[in-house]
Amino acid sequence: MPQLLRVQSFNVSRDGFGTGEGQSLERPFGHADPTPLFSWRAATASFMYRTEPGGTRGLDDYLTRDYDHNIGAEIMGRNKFGPQRGPWENHDWQGWWGDNPPFHTPVFVLTHYERPSFTLSDTTFHFLDASPAEALERARQAADGRDVRLGGGVATIREFIEADLVDTMHIAVAPVDLGRGERLWDSPDDLLDRFHLESVPSPSGVTHLLFWRR
């Protein structure tokens, strides 16, 4: 089976924004409150940070479980990793996720500035100054036959779409407008020249958009 490059459970607002404006250490999503974007997933029985029994089943839970199914590596942009810009001046900063990041695979962070790899728990972060195709080749080698997840953010997803490297996408559209920030699209129909699209509404209020390569 071919190794797929998948965008999995990526969240956008109804007006197409994946994050707000003005990212900082204290506000990873800038001016936007991320809660409305992620609440559908946090409510599920399979949510990775759930500490108590319970949670919803059904469509949202199924797609939450699919987040890491057959994933062997992740690619992310630098802005998903953290708020620093320019040369890496603080190597003590090791991402938003604490000592046990939720990836459990090699992660390849795209950046124009060198930084040594490091490992937290069972996740190793590598820092690449590479084209999308070069980064995908590295990630596929590390994934050991499994798929590669393209984790975002928005600019990184758009870059890989433009390079015609993305095979499938699951985008969860929340019923909220952000108004400004980083926009994935004006309309999901913008991508119909590259992808088939199925739209599946959920009782939680989000609409799940499932794209697969033409």
* Fourth-tier CATH superfamily name: Dihydrofolate Reductase, subunit A
Helical proportion?
A: 10-25%
What is the approximate shape? globular
Strand content: 25-35%
Class inferred from helices and paired strands: alpha/beta
| Major sheet summary line | 9 strands, mixed
Order of helices and strands: EEHHEHEEEHEHEEEE
CATH architecture label: 3-Layer(aba) Sandwich
Tell how many strands the DSSP assignment holds. Answer: 11
Q: What is Rg?
A: 17 Å
Poorly predicted tracts of residues: none
CATH topology-level fold name: Dihydrofolate Reductase, subunit A
Q: Identify the strand order in the major beta sheet.
A: 5-6-4-3-7-1-8-11-10
CATH class: Alpha Beta
Distance between the termini: 18 Å
Average of the residue pLDDT scores: 95
Total individual domains: 1
Tally of contiguous helical segments? 5
GO molecular function: 5-amino-6-(5-phosphoribosylamino)uracil reductase activity
InterPro entries: DHFR-like_dom_sf (IPR024072), RibDG_C (IPR002734), Riboflavin_Biosynth_HTPR (IPR050765)
Protein name: Deaminase/reductase
GO biological process, one term: riboflavin biosynthetic process
